[in-house]
Design goal:
Number of strands: 6
Shape: globular
Structural class: mainly beta
Radius of gyration: 15 Å
Strand content: over 45%
Distance between the termini: 49 Å
């Protein structure tokens, strides 16, 4: 199977026959990719990291920090079913995501 490449910031995600979720916006402090199933290899600087099913790779642009964690893929893919599920999120982040989804601006 021939991989395809997804480039975000300084990262290249090498994707092979898979389901994944990338979250990356220029104005946000973090970018992430979560692997639902299949295979993703993350390439950055001179490093590579294979992502496993139900893992999320997150890069914080402010402090240049990388984290890996297990995730609930049902929560991450809720948007595919027309649902919004928010967990452990600040009010500002919640508002920003809703603004993007509905193309509106909230004023508090």
């Amino acid at each position: 199977m021939k991989p395809f490449l997804v480039k975000v910031d300084k990262f290249t995600y090498r994707v092979t026959g898979t389901s994944f979720n990338v979250y990356a916006f220029d104005e946000d402090d973090e970018i992430s990719i979560a692997l639902l199933e299949g295979g993703v290899t993350i390439e950055y600087d001179s490093n590579t990291r294979k992502l496993y099913s139900e893992e999320m790779f997150t890069y914080n642009k402010k402090n240049n920090e990388i984290t890996l964690k297990k995730v609930n893929v049902n929560l991450l893919t809720s948007w595919c079913r027309g649902e919004f599920v928010f967990d452990n999120m600040t009010f500002d982040e919640l508002a920003r995501r809703l603004e993007r989804s509905y193309k509106v601006e909230f004023v508090f």
